[in-house]
Amino acid sequence: MGATFVVTLREAFEAALVLGIVYTYLDKIGGRAYYRYATAGGALGLLASIAAGVAVSFLSGPLLDLGPDVVSAVVVFAAVILLTWHGWWMRQHARSIKGDVQRRIDQARLTRRLWIIGLIAFTGVFREGAETILFLWGLLTQATSSVAGIAGGALGVATAALLGWAIFRGGRRLSLPRFFTVTSAILLFVSAGLFSTGVGQLQGLGVLPQSQALWDTSVLLSDRSLVGAFLSGLLGYRARPSALEVGAYVTYVAVAGLLFFGNVLVPARQRSEPRPDVARP
Fold first, then answer.
1. Higher-confidence position of 267 and 109
2. Are 74 and 137 contacting, i.e. CB atoms less than 8 angstroms apart?
3. For a 10 Å CB count at each end of the chain, is N or C smaller?
4. How far, in Å, CA of 42 to CA of 112, rounded?
5. Among 52, 22, 18, CA closest to 38
6. Is 113 exposed, middle or buried (0-12, 13-18, 19+ CB in 10 A)?
7. Quick one: residue 215, left, alpha or beta (phi over 0 = left, psi -120 to 50 = alpha)?
8. C-alpha distances in angstroms, 25 versus 127, 167, 186, 248?
9. Can you spell out the DSSP letters for the chain?
10. What is the tens place of the pLDDT at every residue in 85-123?
11. How high is the pLDDT of residue 278?
C-alpha cells in the first residue's frame, strides 16, 4: 500500500503540475477562452490511460501462460528500469518543464494551431498515466494484498489532486524541488526493494545460485504481517533475505543513488551554468 501510494502520488502530481502550468499560463496571458482545449486534452489523456490499463490486463492473460514466476520476474525488472530512468530524468529536467510548456503554448497561439494546447495536456496526463500503470503492474505482482495496493494507489491520486488544487489556488507554500527530492528518495528505496525481489525470484527459478538467509527477523517482524508487508512494499524489507538479495539492494541504492543525487556533489557554480534543453522522449 505504501509503495503504490508514493508511486501514484508522484505520477498524478506530475500530471496535475503540467495541467496547472497550462491553466495558469493561459490565465496570465488572457487566454481563458483556450481552457477548453486543455480540458479536452486532459480528459482524453485520462481516458487513454484507462484504456492502456485495460489493454495491459488483457495482455497479461496470455503472457501468464509462460509461467507466472517468469512473467513476474520480467515485470519486476521492467518496472525497476522504468522507475530508475524516470527518477533520473526528473532530477535532470524538472526545472525546465515550466518554461518548455509555456514556449509551446506561445507557439500554438502565434501559429493559430490551438489544438497544440490540447496536445500538451493530453501528453502530460497520458504519459504519467501510462507510466503509473506499468509501475503499479510491477508493484502489485509483489503485493500481499491487491486490495490494499489498489487502495494505496487511489489514495495517492486523491492526495496528488488535492496538492495540485492547493498549489494553483493560492497555497504555494509547497516547495516543488523539495517535494521531488523527497519522493525521489522514497522511490529509490521502492526500486531497490523491487530489484532485490527480482533477484530473489531468479534464485527461485534456478537462474541464480541459492544461498542461505543472512538473518531471520520473522519472529520480531514477519514480512507477511501488516506492518511488515507495508515496509516490504515501501522499503523492500525482508525478514529472511539471502546474501544475493541484500547485495542487490545495497548495490542498487549505491548506483541509482549516484544517478539520482550525484549532481549534489557537483559544485554550485557548475550546476548554475546554462545547458541546452533536452526534449523528453
1. 109
2. no
3. C
4. 20
5. 22
6. exposed
7. beta
8. 21, 14, 31, 45
9. -HHHHHHHHHHHHHHHHHHHHHHHHHHHTT-GGGHHHHHHHHHHHHHHHHHHHHHHHHHHHHHGGG-HHHHHHHHHHHHHHHHHHHHHHHHHHGGGHHHHHHHHHHHHHHTT-THHHHHHHHHHHHHHHHHHHHHHHHHHTT-S-HHHHHHHHHHHHHHHHHHHHHHHTT-TTS-HHHHHHHHHHHHHHHHHHHHHHHHHHHHHTTSS----BS---TTT--TTSHHHHHHHHHH---SS-BHHHHHHHHHHHHHHHHHHHGGGGS-HHHHTS--------
10. 877 877 777 667 777 888 888 888 888 888 888 888 898
11. 40
C-alpha cell at 259: 544517478
pLDDT(270) > 70: no
The label of the residue with cell 533477484 reads 199
Nine-digit cell at 160?
A: 496528488
Nearest CA-CA partner of 17 in 260, 190, 186, 180: 180
Long-range contacts of 226-230 (CB under 8 A, 24+ apart): 229/143, 229/144, 229/145, 229/148, 230/1, 230/2
CA distance 214 to 182: 30
Contact 120, 105 (CB under 8 A): yes
pLDDT of residue 277: 44
